[in-house]
Amino acid sequence: MIEFIAANFVPMMFAGLLVFLLSGFPVAFALAATGLFFGVIGMEAGLFPSNLFQALPLRVFGIMQNDTLLAIPFFTLMGIILERSRMAEDLLATVAQVFGPVRGGLAVAVILVGALLAATTGVVAAAVISMGLISLPIMLRYGYNRTIATGTITASGTLAQAIPPSLVLIVLADQLGRSVGDMYAGALIPGLMLVGLYLLFIAGVAIIKPRWVPALPAEARIYNEPDGTSGHRSLLVLLAMCAAVSYAWAQVHEAVINPLIGREFSPAADEIIILSITVGSLLALALALLNRLFRLGLLSRLAEQVTFVLIPPLVLIFLVLGTIFLGIATPTEGGAMGALGALIMASSRRALTWSLLKQALESTTKLAIFVMFILIGSTVFSFTFNAADGHVWVEHLFDKLPGGQMGFLLFVNILVFVLGMFIDFFEIAFIVVPLLAPVAAKMDIDLIWFGVILAMNLQTSFLTPPFGFALFYLRSVAARSDYTDVVTKERIPAVTTAQIYKGSIAFIILQLIMVAVVVFNPTLVTGSLGAKVQVDDDAVSDMLRNMPGLEEASPQEEEAPAEEEAEVPEPEASAPAEESAEDPRKALQDSLKKP
User: Fold this and answer.
1) pLDDT value at 355 more than 60
2) Which of 261, 285, 475, 583 is 20 to 30 A from 417 via CA?
3) pLDDT of 389-439, one tens digit each?
């Protein structure tokens, strides 16, 4: 019996975890229970020493002292404050007025606001529920195709998983042992490309099926000028000015920033983009403030509304990400700054109340505790799993996979996609990723690239039936029965669950296409990262040679006369090891020469 347990211990652990999960046990406690249960079995069977869990308390305290994970509650608080201060409502109403006159304009507005909410709230539930409550009735009122409307809302809400400062990216960076700043930098361009892919899809629908995405009628446009014009010309002029200033800043960014922070190498492209847009946004805000303060009449009502509603959250996002990319702030410090900025913005809108703050702190605490307990449970599980050489067992599973790196990535993406249909992204990140990361590292796969691929794939878990959370969020706020529209006074049929599920299919395909693009073009991720530092062994040797106390022996000391060789006592067998240990310069040189 003991031989059978020893030979099949790791598969039995997975089976035990599955039993605990199917029994309805919470995931965090299922992981911990599986680890403890099989750890006791292993100790009783003599497979493990009796002190197996002796270091477990130290590991738990180490988790609670993890500065990286501290960014999660900060960004969560930032997002909840902004969402509860009715920022989403103002954004949707304003951006819909900008793009409403064109076919598909409402869907474009939902996608752009979804991307903006993703970079501020970072919470899928908040984004989907806000846009479902505000934009879905408007889309149905003016005759949008129901599958396009529901699919656009649910897919736009899931952008919070791929666009920094995503909580998923923080967790993946922690599990992969990589910098959160690098993970953000690597995910920025793929996340923006996914937004562009959504917009291209809506543009294609507007061309092929214009009836599915009609434009807003004239009576629905509320920011017209006194002479009846829409005000778009003024907005375009302001946009052109800001774009010109942003471009000018991009040309001088390196010359201005490098001396300020003492940097000698060229900045990354994403840093230049973020700070250039920040400068352009600040210019727009300054012009709008001057126009309103001195009543200059240079900007239209639409241009002013867009500036005052859109620019403050944009500036907050860019300042948070910009300081992280510049290396001025860590992600945790950036999250703290974002939370403080959200409180200031809510106060300026006179929306910050004691009740709102209490709700935000309560929700943030719940999410932080949820993440903490899952991480503790996964740590207990991995204690027993690693003691049984489970990581070796997992590596052997992939030995026979054809295709090398691509075969491994194909298998992993299929696995994560299927698991995403049934379990939450946090659970996948804490259970599956620690098992796959060592295999990816041995295959010489860049772990930042690997993490971004997983983040893009995990995004589909919110859309895939039967447990796509974004689908449930929209279902909770969509009309379950026929109702009379308050504006047109017409009867609007209810939104069915089948329509919500059907609407997600096209966007799931778009997300999988983006995953494939990132897999086959790793430079989309790694190109945003700084060049790896190459260590010059000769330069290090020269540096050490000139350090006081580590000078090399002079040639006269090294070269002993031939006649004196007999007088030198023969060293003991352990002398070379002792000499290497006592000579730090030589030890460092030897370590650098090792492959």
Assistant:
1) yes
2) 475
3) 777 777 777 767 777 788 889 988 998 888 888 777 777 888 888 888 888
**C-alpha span between 276 and 256 (Å, rounded):** 12
Listed residue (170, 161, 222) closest to 190, CA to CA: 161
Closest-CA residue to 316 (of 285, 272, 288): 285
**CB distance 339 to 331 below 8 Å:** no
Q: Determine contact, residues 462/504, Cβ cutoff 8 Å.
A: no
Q: Binning pLDDT at 50, 70 and 90, where does residue 244 land?
A: very high
Tokens describing residue 502:
């059907």
Biggest alpha carbon–alpha carbon distance for the chain? 113
Q: What is the pLDDT of residue 546?
A: 59
* Spatial contact of 528 and 186, defined as CB atoms under 8 Å apart: yes
Q: Does residue 466 have a cis peptide bond before it, meaning omega lies within 30 degrees of 0?
A: yes
- Specify the DSSP class assigned to residue 443: T
Residue-level length of the chain: 595
Per-residue pLDDT reduced to its tens digit, 115-160: 888 777 666 777 788 788 888 888 888 888 999 999 999 998 888 8
**Residue 298, Cβ density class (10 Å: 0-12 exposed, 13-18 middle, ≥19 buried):** middle
- Cβ contact 59:372 at 8 Å: no
Q: Which residues lie below 8 Å from residue 21, measured CB to CB, with a gap of 6+?
A: 27, 30, 423
Is residue 517 scored above 90 in pLDDT? yes
CA dist., res. 382 & res. 10, Å (int) = 11
Q: What is the pLDDT of residue 140?
A: 87
**Cβ distance 518 to 179 under 8 Å?**
no
Taking the C-alpha atoms of residue 264 and residue 261, their distance in angstroms, rounded to an integer, is: 9
| Element of type H or E holding 519 | helix 497-520
283-335 pLDDT per residue, tens: 888 988 898 888 888 888 888 888 888 888 888 877 787 788 777 788 888 88
Compute the mean pLDDT over every residue in the chain, rounded to the nearest whole number.
80
Reduce the DSSP state of residue 346 to 3 states and report it. Answer: helix
Please report the pLDDT score of residue 542 as a whole number: 61
CB neighbours of residue 47 within 10 Å: 18
Phi, psi of 164 (to 5 degrees): -60, 150
Question: What band does 587 get if pLDDT is binned at 50, 70 and 90?
Answer: low
Any idea what the Cα angle at residue 490 is, between residues 484 and 495, rounded to 5°? 60
Contact yes or no for 354/8 (Cβ under 8 A): no
CB atoms within 10 A of CB 512: 15
Rounded to two decimals, the pTM is: 0.76
Task: Tell which residue, 566, 481, 455, 489, has the closest CA to residue 172.
Answer: 455
Q: Mind spelling out the 3-state secondary structure of 210-262?
A: HHHCCCCCHHHCCCCCCCCCCCHHHHHHHHHHHHHHHHHHHHHHHHHHHHHHC
Cβ-contact 341, 190 below 8 angstroms: no
What CA–CA distance (Å, rounded) separates 493 from 429? 40
CA–CA–CA angle 423, 202, 121 (5° rounding): 45
Paired tokens of 492: 């609007």
